[in-house]
Amino acid sequence: MDALEAIMTTRAIRRFTAEPVAEADLWTCLRAAQQAPSGGNVQPTRYLVVTDPDLRTKLGELYLSAFGRYAAAMPDRPTDAVGKRIGRSAFHLARTLAAVPVIVFFLMPRQESLVEGVDIGPVAASVYPAVQNFCLAARALGLGTTLTTVIRIHQAETLDLLGVPDGWEIAAMVPLGHPAETFSIAVRKDVAGLTMINRWS
Ligand SMILES: Cc1cc2nc3c(=O)[nH]c(=O)nc-3n(C[C@H](O)[C@H](O)[C@H](O)COP(=O)(O)O)c2cc1C
User: What letter would DSSP give residue 142?
Assistant: First the structure.
């Protein structure tokens, strides 16, 4: 697939079929993730792939509970058509996460900076490019993903469930599966209205 087409049509997919993900495809996505840039080429990301049905069930419970807390904390629910669609879609994922064949955690070290004592940007800046590369590779293979973070509301329980040692935190949790919806170009704000040339204006 053409790289630009993959970029333009990669969007949040939250409805999946029960079809399993081929192991070779999962590794293609992970290799793509690992090709992403990182500050000083430190490559801080750890990938934790969950396929075990019992673990997925427990993650589904934690995610649904986290999503409920998130929804309750939102001051105003969106009332426009796009906002309502995202809300319904996000709630669907929260109710069905356990059925998604693969759930990938992107873990990052709990530290201020990748290089002690100097600010070369937040650690997360060296992790999210890997997440997006993973999602783009999945798209190229016809697989769906969504970058999610709501599980951080139950971060301690989730890390404990997955046996993650101290010193690591969740950057993202990405469900991966065959989409039960179609890929399309999402409507976004016009980039021309958000771009300045040479001076802030
Ligand atoms: C940092 C970040 C956190 C997100 N967390 C969640 C989440 O926890 N659950 C979820 O369903 N979607 C989550 N999303 C997905 C967004 O809702 C989605 O990217 C946005 O609505 C645009 O969707 P679209 O590309 O399909 O138009 C997150 C996206 C980002 C970038």
Answer: T
